[in-house]
Amino acid sequence: MASAALIRNLRRRELSFPLLSHLRTLPEITKTSWTSSHPSSRWASFARPFSSKPAGNDVIGIDLGTTNSCVAVMEGKNPKVIENSEGARTTPSVVAFNQKGELLVGTPAKRQAVTNPTNTVFGTKRLIGRRYDDPQTQKEMKMVPYKIVKAPNGDAWVEVNGQQYSPSQIGAFILTKMKETAESYLGKSVSKAVITVPAYFNDAQRQATKDAGRIAGLDVQRIINEPTAAALSYGMNNKEGLIAVFDLGGGTFDVSILEISNGVFEVKATNGDTFLGGEDFDNSLLEFLVSEFKRTEGIDLSKDRLALQRLREAAEKAKIELSSTSQTEINLPFITADASGAKHLNITLTRSKFESLVNSLIERTRSPCKSCLKDAGYSSRNIWKIPSKGVNPDEAVALGAAIQGGILRGDVKELLLLDVTPLSLELRHLKAISSCFFSFRCFLPPRTIRTQVGVRVLQGEREMASDNKLLGEFELVGIPPAPRGMPQIEVTFDIDANGIVTVSAKDKATGKEQQITIRPPAAFLRMMIEKDETLIDIRNSADTTIYSIEKSLSEYRDKIPAEVASEIESAVAELRQAIAGDEMIGSKQSLTLLTRQFRR
């Protein structure tokens, strides 16, 4: 506990880390997950905040990945990855709604993606905190079979079965599965979590991830960087030295330089690309397969969503196989058909051909690595050992997050974690030039003061203000009239341990002060959370009512008139259908109607 308290007193962020060679899977072979075919039980996980299990004080660590997710918890002094209900240690970050409106999460969702491509969403972590008009969003729209739509606030959302969901809501479905997995293992309810994010996530993306946790009913104790978390799991057993973390995940790329010494984990620098990962490797191979089929058969498969999903799965499988073989066969019978009959795809892919297809993606990792070394003040000669194979890249991040949870609980007292903010914070003057306010190498959480007038808060590394991301702006009213340039405004930037920015402005002459926390528009989040909580309440009541009525109906059917029993069964069916959707009014009305009929 002293360690965690010391970190807070220093106003520096406690965090966690991975090891040098952490090529943390391109979308990899996924394992099984959870679902329920019962329309009432599919919402059981959302009811967990109201669980009857005894409340626990455990802080679980969750790696919310683009391709796979993982959950871990501290057992004594050691972190442990928790297996899901299917016995797998990782869960595919895939969410789907089938034709019955049932929610599927993990392997069941991925398994039916070929036959239900438009209602199966994956890789939504790449959309978290992004605007619909973002060029990266527009690029992603061309590569996925599901719909990406523009939300009322301008963010990128997805549309499934006619319903629109924010990336935070999709993330919440996955986090709920992780929460359920932990509760099943621990035998008690869990409400606290440490969630990891890519090191190069900006403020809006970190907030959106925290929002996903709130929607899932979790009190997010800390948002920490993935490389930091993985390095923590690597260096927990008294390992020391300078390490580099090369974290090429399913959708994002991070590289960090860290120094481990006497239990102190200090991040020297970090860099990355939030739109580079295994999904892009799959897409490169997918585009090649589409072009080859068009060349040989004269048919363009790019508009066939069903064929594209089959090609995507085949591309991922081939990529994995080429890690251990020099060539592989891609065979997809009946991929499409024309007037002459069915068409089949049969291509032999060599490792050298695949490497040529993805070479440009590999080259994109070079610049962040060089920049990270430069920012840390080191050269490649300082990091010379071969990549370590001592840590499972699928699990290292979740293990580090669990260790961070142990620090917050006071179970781990020997570690001090220091991370940095990945992007600079800047003030925009009346001119269009940005003035760097916090260097991206500033320790978290920092606090500093500067006198300025008329500022907008920006995040990024570009010199021109218009090229950086606007986080927010503020005005301090009631300043006494004075010539331009004369008022002195004390501007305070405060970054908390989650990397969330708070800005306050104070007029030194009058003492008037205003404070804002920079975050994405919260109205939509509040609306979503309130709606979800109300739906959970209604569904819990509906489940209880249905169970009681069906039990009573089974016991006393011979004493109930046939027409009354038929009416009750119809009302039960109507209620089941109502709670399978997202309409609160319909669900509540059906519940009221059923209750009245049963009492009558």
TrEMBL record:
<dbReference type="InterPro" id="IPR018181">
    <property type="entry name" value="Heat_shock_70_CS"/>
</dbReference>
<dbReference type="GO" id="GO:0005524">
    <property type="term" value="F:ATP binding"/>
</dbReference>
<dbReference type="InterPro" id="IPR029048">
    <property type="entry name" value="HSP70_C_sf"/>
</dbReference>
<dbReference type="Pfam" id="PF00012">
    <property type="entry name" value="HSP70"/>
</dbReference>
<keyword id="KW-0547">Nucleotide-binding</keyword>
<keyword id="KW-0256">Endoplasmic reticulum</keyword>
<dbReference type="InterPro" id="IPR029047">
    <property type="entry name" value="HSP70_peptide-bd_sf"/>
</dbReference>
<dbReference type="GO" id="GO:0140662">
    <property type="term" value="F:ATP-dependent protein folding chaperone"/>
</dbReference>
<comment type="similarity">
    <text>Belongs to the heat shock protein 70 family.</text>
</comment>
<keyword id="KW-0067">ATP-binding</keyword>
<keyword id="KW-0175">Coiled coil</keyword>
<dbReference type="InterPro" id="IPR043129">
    <property type="entry name" value="ATPase_NBD"/>
</dbReference>
<protein>
    <recommendedName>
        <fullName>Heat shock 70 kDa protein, mitochondrial</fullName>
    </recommendedName>
</protein>
<feature type="coiled-coil region">
    <location>
        <begin position="301"/>
        <end position="328"/>
    </location>
</feature>
<dbReference type="InterPro" id="IPR013126">
    <property type="entry name" value="Hsp_70_fam"/>
</dbReference>
